[in-house]
Structures
1.
Amino acid sequence: RPSLSYRPMMVTMAMSTSNKNKSYWTSVHEDIGAHLRQAVVVKEPVEVYEPMRHFVFAAPVNMAPVLCVAACELVGGHREQAIVAAAALHVMHAASFIHENLPLSDRTSLIPKSKPTMYHAFKPNTELLVADAMLPFGLELLASSDNPAGNNSGRILRVMVEMTRAMGSQGVVEGQYNELQCSQCDDDDRKLNGITDVEMTYETYKKKEGRLHACGAACGAILGGGSEKEIELLRRYGFYVGMIQGIVSRRLGPTEEIEELKKLAFKLREVNSFNDENAEVIFSLVDDNITHVLGFNLG
Amino acid sequence: RPSLSYRPMMVTMAMSTSNKNKSYWTSVHEDIGAHLRQAVVVKEPVEVYEPMRHFVFAAPVNMAPVLCVAACELVGGHREQAIVAAAALHVMHAASFIHENLPLSDRTSLIPKSKPTMYHAFKPNTELLVADAMLPFGLELLASSDNPAGNNSGRILRVMVEMTRAMGSQGVVEGQYNELQCSQCDDDDRKLNGITDVEMTYETYKKKEGRLHACGAACGAILGGGSEKEIELLRRYGFYVGMIQGIVSRRLGPTEEIEELKKLAFKLREVNSFNDENAEVIFSLVDDNITHVLGFNLG
């Protein structure tokens, strides 16, 4: 009788470039997870912190936090300078994911079917409030990481402005608004507005995933002490990574658009000043193999 | 035929102490309103900023922002050092008020009848998202007020930690959670938990109004450069103001408890070092006449 238990397939192979990149991303991801496990503990009030911990580890993972750490290291910073910001990005992303999935009277049935959805472990009321607690909690982690002796308060405040904008009305929230508008439109509305479904979807992941990942990379570069040119270059790179993630997570790809975005991303590598091994690692993130193979899980 | 138009009753009186205090609070309030009017403008995306501006000026006003400015001035700071923090407190309070009034499947009918409620000018979906944008927007206002030349990044970051804690799981959110638990309990539940309705309500406004006003006063003292002793004393004073506001806004008062809280607040004045005219002004806030007469309106 064949065994029903799962046995991993053992493959012996030389440490290829791709494997080296993969192990880099895995280590970054593990460090963020470790930081979150010690930062998000169940304490009083348990009614708030227990669902908070649940959602921090149950929410889907995106690439903005690992990009934040990698960008910091690429510009010559140390991992610990970016790890709290990366954890904060994950907590805030998880908060916005909860609200996005909240059953409201005017949208219960409108959440696009193609998107990853959430198992509702708690009542809507608890889910609403716990996400309301998570957004400030993420920023609290970051603000309280300021070490007066470290003389980096200015950088932390700059990162806070980046994050609040990306999470708010000029980023994720606008994207979510677009997405719901989009799902509520019928064909006549679209004709009236002169905008196609594809264009609306593009606007959505530009604001949501694009803006969030651009923010992650820019924040890492700021915290690592990158130049303004490096910060803006990594912001653009993060934007392309986010756009690709937006397409992939909506199961729209692989499309020509992904290939186009990859080309744009690789072009950034050519014009920049990071012509060394570290640059190879960070640019490996736009490689489908990396993002798909990793299957990140923070639990 | 009698005129139906409203004519204010003209009363001529000498500028009493109470009037002087009242004009102080009015001027603080007007300055916060003026700052909000120029900081919260309708811009792109209009779908987010228009409801945001609506709610910033439609949400009920509490005393945390004016306390923040008054505490700053009391410890010797300038008004402009605290005005952005005060505006941020109002924006975040407005955000939490919106979510508190959001109709959710498990609480539509459970919002206590005695509380001020909200006219729903937008759909639940818009109200959810706009409040999600307002919390980071409030913190963005504060973070971007940092002037690198001003050398006060450390104070701003400390204030951010204060605010994120007060708004989140250790303050307003816990209070809101309590309040809803409370409204869902029946008498048997209460007997089982060994907690009375009065005790639950007390816990609620301790966390919500108490914590928020304590935060407002402490933040003002931090930004104005107060000593640790002054910061903690003003935090306690703010807590009493918030407790009184919590009782008054639930239309539970006037009760013996308010008198007790007033006594505690005035006791703080005796033991502190602010034995001058400015102290008289800030302590006038616990006087019912001031809080009731003002009828603050930011519009």
2.
Amino acid sequence: MHVLVIGAAGMLGRKLTSALIGEARLGGRKIEKLTLVDVVAPDRPDFGGALEMLAADLAEDGVAARLIAGRPDIVFHLAAIVSGEAEADFEKGYRINLDGTQALFEAIRLEGAGKAYCPRVVFTSSIAVFGAPFPDVIGDDHALTPLTSYGTQKAIGELLLADYSRRGFFDGVGVRLPTIVVRPGKPNKAASGFFSGILREPLTGQEAILPVADTVRHWFASPRAAVGFLLHAATMDTSGLGIRRSLNMPGVAATVAEEIGALQRAAGERAVSLIRRQPDPVIEKIVQGWPRAFDPERALAFGFSGDASFDAIVQIYIEDELGGVLPA
Amino acid sequence: MHVLVIGAAGMLGRKLTSALIGEARLGGRKIEKLTLVDVVAPDRPDFGGALEMLAADLAEDGVAARLIAGRPDIVFHLAAIVSGEAEADFEKGYRINLDGTQALFEAIRLEGAGKAYCPRVVFTSSIAVFGAPFPDVIGDDHALTPLTSYGTQKAIGELLLADYSRRGFFDGVGVRLPTIVVRPGKPNKAASGFFSGILREPLTGQEAILPVADTVRHWFASPRAAVGFLLHAATMDTSGLGIRRSLNMPGVAATVAEEIGALQRAAGERAVSLIRRQPDPVIEKIVQGWPRAFDPERALAFGFSGDASFDAIVQIYIEDELGGVLPA
């Protein structure tokens, strides 16, 4: 089979590519061909099958049609301008996150207009489609009320995914990812960055800043769990999904205090002492609008499974990013 | 003030235009100028102020910018391809209902990029943004799960309306209209047509076909109430709306049996006897996916008011379309 990954150079895209190559199969079928696309060329992985690498902007004329002309069996659509940038640059956010997604969906519809073609499309959505006010635990029937342009663009992508799937143009699954922790790499300026930072930095002896209260509660998944969601979405039986094509993924609800507890159990009191409390009213306010927990009933019924606990999330970071051991 | 009505030649557009001219004022300000637009030129109404009439397609390049260059204070966006046609012609539905709406919103944003400009935008949405399964009475926080391309396009319009309003590009209010009864004019092929037909035809001595069971329950408003919703949306204080810019309007929930009861009270048993029961499994199935009733708490709190009863809806038709008297 032929698998297309759009957004392959990002953190999740690279981990997904590794997993695809590691498994070599998807839903019982051998992966014969892999096409990797991003605005910057992804690193060339070590893959035995046919490999195509492309640096291209999905929103540009003809790019989506060119990607789809190869008739991939599975399309992973991970490409997006992130929340902060989509908020800072209104036009760029809509161009990539909305026009780019529309261009992809239209290319698939038009490719199938001649000779039958109905690929599985896995669309990465986000809990950013939900904005306050909402209940402490959000159910599967809760209204989409995004508080950002990014969340709006993801919510629109979900609606298009459902309509194109209903019309039989493709077989879509939308995956509403929890906030990913522990994000590898350097600290960034995302408002959510501290959720990873207060673990990642202390685990390697660095100081980290905590801008919110210990009582803040949020919804998390490890990168490994997120890749698992995407792989499951690519292979699951979609016959029972009906028109509700996007699902709240099973995350782990945890307070900042519970994060710190997991850090303490993994790396001791010295690590915890590296967290410096420095309240930031701007971040406090942004975070207040974010979901705290979900009851992901449908996703569980459809066989998605998440991290076992916040301790497991920390352990995954140590295994996958630090070679299984903490620096002395 | 300058009022722009897009979709002015349709049933609601014409009634709205009449109401605007009849009132002569909106929110306490005199209407100095009226611009009426539709794909076919609307009939020229008798209006003392400045009047501009245009036949134009909102989705065509430059049309939206031309309409907005006149800097209307209020924009009523009623233009849409209806449900059945948007389902039959996928491309046309998306072009008019989505691209046209986006073009309008973008034209307003770009007009304001030079010199400050922030009009009120009244967007007509529909209860078609909701699809089964849902509870018997739908609350304000219920998820949008449209079952048609039309409903999808309206739901996307709502999301854009909210985001553009949040960013301060305009001050938008989305009005989720109930099914309008009694629709004046000839019977049409819309799946919902019988809800009006079983009243309109018997009221003037004609036979009408009822394709569903008497127990079917649905959510209704008269054309007069619908115009009232639009006028209120144009003038209401929006400061408490937050990001939730689209509201379920207060309709009247009624079963087909209750409709028939209202007909009987208005026009007697002879009128009722003109309803011919002819079950149609296709229409039965479509109607099963439609909302039955709402709890329009927010709309009521924001001052919207609907019809008093189904009897009142029938009376409005007799007054507004039959000159107040039933034909002998």
